[in-house]
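Hey, I'm writing a tutorial for new members on how sequence and structure tokens pair up, and I'd like a real worked example in the thread rather than a made-up one. If someone can provide the structure for the chain below, I'll link this post from the tutorial.
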Amino acid sequence: MSLKIQYEFLFAGRDEGNFLENYAYEVTENRGGAGQVFVCLEIQNNPAEAESMGEAIFEALKLAFFDHETSSLEAYVRFENSLKAINHRISDFRKGKLQKHIGTVHAIVAAIEGGTLYLSQCGDSEAYLIRKHFVSIVSEGLYDPSNRDGDMFSSIANGDLESGDFVLFSTTRLLRYVTKIELSRMIVSSNLQRTLADLRDMLSGEILGRIGFIGVSTTLLTYAPSGIGDERGVALDFGGGRKMDIAASFGPVIEKAKQFHRVMMDRVKGARLFERVGPIGRFASEIKQRLSWDEGLNKDKILVAFIAVIVLLAGGIWFVRWNQLRSAELLGFDQKLTEARQLVSDAESQGVIDKKASGILLQAAEEKTREVLNSGQYRDKSREIMTLIQQTRDLLDNIKHVTASRVYADLSAKGGSNNLGLIAGRDRYYVYDSEKLFEVILDKVQDPIKFESNETIISGSYFDLQDQPIFFSKSGKLYAYASGVLREMVAQEGAMRKGVQITDWGNRVYILDPASDQIWKYPFVKSTSVFGSAEGYKTDGKLDDAISFTIDANVFVLASDGGIDRYYGGVKQSTQIEKAPFTPLAKPTKIYTDSEMNQLFVIDGNRIFAYVKDLKTENLVYSHQFVVSGISDIRDIHYDKNTEKFYLLDASKIYEMVP
């Protein structure tokens, strides 16, 4: 079975200074029939000699594989000799360097003869065989990266090709950017150019730098009738014995046209060229069918040929103009990304001095990058800069990624699967959900104690005055726990006010009541063990969107949008958030501090925001942020000042975290 071998070159991505080139050479007759050799090459970090090295590698391959003196040898042996010749030329380049550094080479060297493929590889380059929509990496294991000063090409892979096979040589690992399934779906071996154009479309916004490809397709060899394309050539008879050999006269022109076509294809980034010029191609095909050169020329045929030339010329002018506009647009996008990267660098430097100004620079960088990203061009590079912007924000926000290193207590074995709060006692922890209370003594979980039936617990606190935890229900009932017994605590006026959270300070218990836009305080009368009448704490400000509060002599109130207000003596104070984080609070749930801490913490999902209390300005200064892996929903928090450890509660466990 004789195979017809067709091949095309492709370059995808934007040049970033590395040398990238494809080479091919073929002979029509050899010992095994027609033969081809290919080099798909990238050389990094050696701009001065890269082109000379590329030409030397290709010349060594071509001359050794098609050497007349060794033509009687098997193709495998000749290919092996070719690799030796290439290694020898590379060694010559190394000898001319003091450090033997010739750059980083990624290359596929291949030959096809008699329907058999021979190839070798170095660096990150890869070769793929797509047969019946199944993708195989046929260059795997051929290169030893540890053998830096030895032969660059040593191992050979070979195998027989079949009709319908598609071979793809790439200067880099293509499967970083596309899956095998995606690659197999776009391969159409009968349409080599369209396949490579589709591949470029897919990669245009995904890759960094530039990639070189050689696509090779195989079909059964058929022989055309005498006419255009016949190896014997075609002559036109003009009468009077005057004849023109078309192949001889127009062969160089046709070859130049092919070269021009390949160059233009390589310079169009991400354009579906064949779809755009399809009508022109179909018109040319129709003209070709209408012209019967074997019957000679007449006026009609000359007129049709003239019209065809005019139309094709106009199409070519349109295409060149379109390509110029396209190149200008791409250049503009590239400039925006360069500017965005510089803005990020400036923001990182500025952030040490002025975080607000840094934020403005990062916002400008994001807008430029998003414009390019939305255009569909340079998508991979745009995403890289967007990631860099976020990393810079994280750096300036002082984000610390930590792990809840140890499970301190697992309450799920005792039925604790929807815990709400964590209360630190003198020598133990108390955990509660809406129905049950758990004591945790020396990391041992005790059997749960149930609250009163039909009561839903929503909050709790440790009432230091009585040295016992207290719990607050949705209906406004207050319970105290001591010595294994729960008892209800009452106020002189009867039922307590409803609210969303309870806490204590001194001899008073405070209830946050957004529905009434108030914080109620109840003084404890120790002689009667009851609370006095409710008193309104707040005298100004708004609490209708408050979700949590904490007290350290000041009352800090957390709003649902992440805002923090400070009250003192019932009066709202002028407190600002300095150096506010770029990444704001998304769904905050709880605010936490005490009088002995110089920091205030806010829980938001698996994040803990830390603010420093500035005693001079009375502002809150954003300090840092913990992102806790292993916990998706932090329900409550306690900071042990003695051990400097955090204890975090989720739905079923208490975790110990060392910051």
